[in-house]
Amino acid sequence: MANKPLIYFLCTGNSCRSQMAEGWARHFGKDKIEVHSAGIETHGLNPRAVSAMKDAGVDISHHTSDLIDPEILNKADYVITLCGDANDKCPFTPAHVHRLHWGFEDPAKTTGSEEEITAKFHEVRDAIKERVAKFLEEEMNDRL
């Protein structure tokens, strides 16, 4: 049980992208991995992110917006940043931690009609889904 790989998704506010990544990783990894997400700030869970994930059949409504926990950061196998701000400001990680950066556009910054904003959330959600699935397949295939 202690040898489950630990993946820590980080973003600026832990409200959208890191939450979606955590949701997809939990969905695909089931109980074979430990997954957390956090931010360098907490902006609360974005209702549009919750809705976009619900539309895809993944419930993240119970997630919370959390600050980076140094204990989780130091025991993580993978720390994955989803925005440049988090990549630049993420605290130092020990040598054993694999740091990856996946830059995704922030759907919360989208302007326009409700339809355009929803479409952007779905676009980012689907891009994160694809990247998480590929990562788990490539990095965790022997464990999943």
Automatic annotation (TrEMBL):
InterPro entries: Arsenate_reductase_ArsC (IPR014064), Ptyr_pPase (IPR023485), Ptyr_pPase_sf (IPR036196)
Catalytic activity: arsenate + [thioredoxin]-dithiol + H(+) = arsenite + [thioredoxin]-disulfide + H2O
Annotated GO biological process: response to arsenic-containing substance
Enzyme Commission numbers on file: 1.20.4.4
Enzyme class: oxidoreductase
Pfam families from the UniProt entry: LMWPc (PF01451)
Superkingdom to which the source organism belongs: Bacteria
Record bears the keyword DNA-binding: no
Single GO MF descriptor: arsenate reductase (thioredoxin) activity
Keywords: Arsenical resistance, Cytoplasm, Disulfide bond, Oxidoreductase, Redox-active center
Phosphotyrosine protein phosphatase I domain location: 5-138
Family: Belongs to the low molecular weight phosphotyrosine protein phosphatase family. Thioredoxin-coupled ArsC subfamily.
Protein name, per record: Arsenate reductase
Organism: Alicyclobacillus tolerans
